[in-house]
Design a protein that fits this description.
This protein is mostly helical. α2 crosses α3. It has a domain of 55 residues. It has four helices and no strands.
């Protein structure tokens, strides 16, 4: 095989990998945290989501002005800590 063809083939492969990596959407961090909460809570999905919103409302009163992600991260971390 000609070394030039090999280099062109490698260049095309790297270009395709770069474009796919650049275009690919990053994972939704909030969705990942919600799923982690559901798993850690060991409740049905509907009950866990209901419980999650109630707990976030309570945290909003306790710590006003934080982002939804902050509250969600707090709850997931709290559950992870409790499972140790």
């Amino acid at each position: 095989m000609n070394p030039v063809h090999l280099l062109i083939g490698l260049g095309v492969m790297f270009a395709v990998a770069f474009v796919v990596g650049f275009v690919k959407q990053p994972p939704d961090q909030l969705a990942l945290l919600r799923e982690r909460y559901i798993v850690l809570s060991r409740q049905s999905r509907a009950q866990a989501l209901h419980d999650l919103e109630e707990r976030i409302d309570k945290l909003r009163v306790r710590f006003p002005g934080k982002s939804y992600r902050w509250y969600l991260d707090w709850l997931v971390t709290d559950l992870e800590r409790a499972k140790r």
